[in-house]
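Q: My labmate handed me this sequence with no annotations at all. I'd like to see what the chain might look like in three dimensions before we decide whether it's worth expressing. Could you predict it?
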Amino acid sequence: MRFLHTADWQLGMTRHFLDADAQARFTDARLDAISRLGAVAAEREAEFVVVCGDVFEDNRLAPAVVARSLDRIAAIDRPVYLLPGNHDPLDAASIYTSEVFRRHRPANVIVLESPGVHEVRPGVELLAAPWFSKHPAGDPLTEAVAAAAAPAAGVIRIAVGHGGTLPVGARDQRLIDVDALSARIAAGELRYVALGDRHSVTEVAPGIWYSGAPEVTNFDHKETASGSVLVVDVPDAGPARVERARVGTWRFASREFPLTAERDVDAAVGALAALPDKDRTVVKVGFTGTVGLAAKARLDAEIEALRARFAAVELWERKTDLAVLPGAEELDALDLTGPAADAAQELLGVARSGGERAADASGALALLYRLTRQEVGA
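A: Here is what I predict for the chain of 378 residues:
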């Protein structure tokens, strides 16, 4: 028996660093990932698709977002099981009970709206644990597994849950008990555990997996191996086999560059410019070190030019500690006189002091340099 395991579609997601044009492309990409997922299901002859929570970003979405999403799911010509998660729980305002969802819900969509066992077909069951609020008192999956009777002989049972997991040997009623799930797998009562919530593909323990998000949601220093769906083969006997299939097309890249000279600026800009698919790439970049005025001015100009090519370029403030300390020849080249020259010397002294205002003084000097060079046409 083969099925697709996916989660955390978070349809309707927005990102504050995307402008209107990039956000529209990002929104379309999340819908396109559903279509590519459907193509994988058809190509690999998967019996069904299970989405382990957070299908939607929120229970309060524009009707068009819901309707367009359901149209994409309808094109997957096999059952698609949706598990409510913490972003889209089955609460009083649930999207799954909304008028727009009921009106546009395709025949192949099954909402796992009750905890317990759901039969897919004779011999195959899903043990589901939907969320009924954003902050349940305990873990729904641990509770559902504990309450379920053992399956009949020869039945393949797949647990479907959402949420964080406990480290092996730890205890916390709010998190999924991996030890308890592993014991059920060892006893043959569960053949596979499909999880959502963690956006990186992760094998927690043998037979217990997070599928990750099918399209990227965070930068690669926090989220790894997202943009995939898992193809899960469950034989009549023996462990499940898991294979990743790529469906995402976006990338959120974080990069750090140490700078000490203008050649380092050229290397950093070259590395950023070499990234592929810029219209689908968001870059968060941090710079450290000490540079002169000319190097800083060049860096600012190049980063501004790159912003027109990428979906977005963000300054990684936590990883940025760049001092601008001009040499005497750089200040002399500006031909400043009178109060302007006095101000530049004062800023230089503050920048070199290393005090609390050093960064502001460095920035002011860099701006002064850039504006002055613009005036002289340099």
